[in-house]
């Protein structure tokens, strides 16, 4: 049971000056405020302690000099996190002179399913990517063709690419529990 | 002897008559039938889990580099490690089964109805803690399923309104599965969830004690006076007998079907056939049927309806006295759960 200060006040009122009851109330309030402040501070510190500080670190890596990267071929990049990333140069534009090549001529599909993060595998017999977790399927260009990702309109994500001074760069994750 | 007794009496000033009155709960006659005693079964499993869990924690190491290896050590090198790990795992399986059966029996005998709604809510809390402990438990083994299950679960929490992204970061200790993730699961599994469950079990039993066990009459004795028997020693003996059967069952299962250890985590390869533990088959199949948001929202709605069912049922019966809605809903729910579980069990994808 908690002590009821108002009850005490009623019985004490005739004998105790109002000033003292004011200070008693002030002390009670100060005590309560300090309790809230100290435990609150502790709660904030604990919460901040549990909240992760670092995001997954990423960095740009060079893939190839585009002159040596022929249309309709692929290059494999191994990220420091262990992921093997296939970078493909498309054949559709037919552009072979480096001057007309843009970053859009290259694709680096992620193999991480946009639904809930499992790894998709390519099934050559069906010409599709398949996610074994919840039966999502994707066309070779990454478009969702079936399962939960198709219903939600999610395609396979792509790694960011950049083209600078005839060199193709890719942004890859540095950390991971693989390896 | 009498000196020791008086020594203890003085130091433990307990009124024996009062203590007896306080603890010797009158037990309704239907609990003479063992299958109504399902509530004690998960509690018994829980004790087994605590004891074997503490033992396993002596060897387990919650780091990505050592976790799988330490589980292998427990299973293959440590004396009786395989047996204790198998007991832990089988007790978990049977605990989930017992919790579900207990909830079904409470549902179909209307024992959740006024004034016992709060105890149904506490029971729902215990159900979720049990499932959470099961999930974090198999995440610790660090076999392929551990990693992919955790990844899927973390991505699912993103769908929780407003705080989803924060929850996900708190659960994983980062944006993705990383070096800190396993220790978070270990703390959840070995400290936070069990302590929460002990608190909830105390509340659960206290409320049962305050309300009395919901009495159930069979057709034959509908008109007779309520019959009760003593908790001590009658019901205690029943529970001890059930406990013996449960321990035998666990020992036999653990000996005949020792728990294997799957392939170590490979974050770059999801196995071609991957399934969670059987008690998540329902949710797993559900996730395959709809888009992520629709599946998550509907699962959330089902859980909310389940938790609020005593109040919904009360509302229905005030509107239409004598309504059989709860029986109908219960049968549909059981059929759906069994159907989806069997479906998932039978197919590869």
Based on the model shown, name its key terms.
heterodimer; A: 179 residues; alpha+beta; 3-stranded antiparallel β-sheet; 3 helices; 10 strands; B: mainly alpha; Cytochrome Bc1 Complex, Chain C; two-stranded antiparallel sheet
Describe this entry's structure for a reader:
The complex is a heterodimer of chains A (179) and B (349). Chain A contains three helices and ten strands, in the order ααββββββββαββ. Chain A has helices at residues 5-12, 18-50, 147-151; strands spanning 58-65, 74-78, 84-89, 106-108, 121-123, 128-131, 136-138, 144-146, 161-164, 167-173. In chain A, the strands form three sheets. A four-stranded antiparallel beta sheet of chain A has the order 5-6-7-8. Chain A has a three-stranded antiparallel beta sheet with strand order 1-10-9, with no helix packed on it. In chain A, strands 2-3-4 form a three-stranded antiparallel beta sheet, with no helix packed on it. The model of chain A has no long low-confidence stretch (mean pLDDT 84). Chain B has a domain at 29-213 and 224-270: Cytochrome Bc1 Complex, Chain C (Up-down Bundle), CATH 1.20.810.10. Helix content of chain B is 68%, strand content 1%. Chain B has helices at 2-11, 16-23, 40-57, 67-76, 81-108, 117-140, 144-157, 164-172, 181-211, 231-256, 281-289, 292-319, 325-346; strands at 27-28, 228-229. In chain B, helix 6 (117-140) runs antiparallel to helix 9 (181-211). The radius of gyration of chain B is 23 Å and the shape is globular. The chains are: A alpha+beta (179), B mainly alpha (349). The A-B interface holds A 50-52, 54-56, 82-84, 115-121, 131-135, 147-149, 151-152, 173, 175-178 and B 64, 147-148, 151-152, 154-156, 166, 169-170, 172-181, 265-274, 284, 287-288, 290-295, 349.
């Amino acid at each position: 049971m908690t002590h009821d200060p108002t009850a005490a006040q009623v019985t004490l009122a005739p004998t105790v000056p109002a000033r003292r009851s004011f200070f008693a109330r002030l002390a009670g309030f100060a005590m309560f405020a300090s309790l809230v402040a100290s435990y609150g501070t502790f709660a904030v510190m604990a919460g901040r302690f549990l909240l992760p500080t670092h995001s997954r670190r990423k960095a740009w890596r060079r893939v190839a000099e585009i002159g040596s990267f022929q249309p309709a071929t692929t290059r494999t990049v191994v990220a420091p996190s262990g992921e093997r990333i296939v970078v493909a140069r498309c054949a559709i534009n037919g552009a072979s002179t480096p001057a007309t090549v843009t970053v859009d001529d290259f694709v680096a599909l992620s193999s991480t399913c946009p639904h809930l993060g499992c790894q998709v595998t390519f099934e050559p017999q069906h010409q599709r990517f398949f996610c074994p977790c919840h039966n999502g399927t994707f066309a070779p260009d990454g478009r969702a063709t079936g399962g939960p990702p198709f219903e939600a309109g999610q395609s396979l994500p792509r790694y960011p690419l950049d083209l600078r001074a005839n060199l193709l760069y890719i942004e890859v994750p540095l950390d991971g529990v693989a390896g | 002897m009498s000196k020791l007794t008086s020594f203890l009496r003085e130091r433990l000033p307990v009124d024996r008559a009062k203590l007896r009155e306080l603890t010797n709960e009158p037990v309704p006659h239907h609990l003479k039938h063992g299958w109504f005693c399902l509530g004690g079964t998960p509690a018994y499993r829980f004790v087994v889990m605590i004891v074997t869990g503490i033992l396993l924690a002596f060897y387990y190491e919650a780091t990505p580099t050592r976790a799988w290896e330490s589980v292998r050590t427990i299973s293959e090198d440590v004396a009786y490690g395989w047996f204790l790990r198998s007991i832990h795992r089988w007790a978990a399986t049977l605990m989930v089964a017992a919790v579900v059966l207990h909830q079904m029996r409470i549902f179909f005998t209307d024992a959740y109805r006024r004034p016992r709604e709060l105890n149904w809510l506490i029971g729902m809390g215990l159900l979720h803690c049990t499932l959470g402990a099961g999930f974090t438990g198999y995440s610790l083994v660090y076999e392929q399923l551990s990693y992919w299950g955790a990844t899927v679960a973390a991505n699912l929490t993103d769908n929780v309104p407003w705080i989803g992204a924060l929850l996900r970061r708190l659960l994983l200790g980062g944006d993705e599965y990383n070096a800190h993730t396993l220790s978070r699961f270990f703390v959840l599994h070995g400290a936070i969830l069990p302590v929460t469950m002990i608190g909830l079990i105390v509340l659960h039993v206290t409320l049962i004690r305050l309300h009395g066990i919901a009495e159930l009459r069979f057709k034959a004795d509908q008109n007779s006076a309520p019959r009760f028997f003593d908790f001590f020693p009658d019901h205690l003996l029943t529970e001890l007998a059930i406990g013996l059967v449960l321990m035998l069952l666990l020992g036999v299962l653990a000996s005949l079907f020792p728990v294997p250890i799957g392939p170590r985590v490979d974050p770059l390869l999801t196995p071609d056939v991957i399934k969670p533990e059987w008690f998540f088959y329902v949710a797993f199949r559900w996730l395959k049927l709809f888009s992520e948001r629709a599946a998550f929202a509907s699962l959330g709605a089902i859980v909310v309806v389940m938790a609020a069912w005593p109040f919904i049922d009360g509302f229905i019966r005030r509107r239409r006295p004598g309504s059989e809605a709860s029986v109908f809903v219960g049968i549909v729910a059981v059929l759906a759960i069994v159907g989806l579980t069997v479906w998932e069990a039978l197919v590869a994808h």
